[in-house]
Amino acid sequence: MIGSLLYLTASRLDIMFSVCLCARFQAEPKESHLTVVKRMFRYFLGTQSLGIWYPRHSTSFEIIGFSDSDFAGCKMDRKNTSGTCQFL
């Protein structure tokens, strides 16, 4: 399930943080993680028309990207958290 969600994050950036947080617990998943993943799938059913679609043949568009990282900032497991923002 997490692999499918990671595939969807290419066009659905609104779930990037939640999916990456769940992916951290793949080695030892709990029932609560399964509940969160099922909730994400229910969210997709209600928001199927949302997403980012890039034009196939466009001559004039510019992508500007920014990123930020927080090294060992998570209080629970001291893992890294990062995020990006792209403007088209």
The number of helices is 3
Average residue-wise pLDDT: 80
Helix proportion: 25-40%
The low-confidence parts are: none
What does the largest sheet look like?
2 strands, antiparallel
Radius of gyration, Cα only, in angstroms? Answer: 15 Å
What topology does this entry show?
Blueprint: H1 2-8, H2 16-23, H3 31-46, E1 64-70, E2 81-87
Antiparallel strand pairs: 1-2
Protein name: Putative mitochondrial protein
Organism: Dendrobium catenatum
Walk me through what this model shows.
By secondary structure, this protein is an alpha+beta fold. It has one domain. It is built from 3 helices and 2 strands. The model has no long low-confidence stretch (mean pLDDT 80).
Summarize the model shown.
This protein has 88 residues and is α+β, with helices and mostly antiparallel strands. The protein has helices at residues 2-8, 16-23, 31-46, and strands spanning 64-70, 81-87. The chain contains 3 helices and 2 strands.
Keywords:
two-stranded antiparallel ribbon, 35% helix, Putative mitochondrial protein, flat, 3 helices, alpha+beta, 88 residues, 16% strand
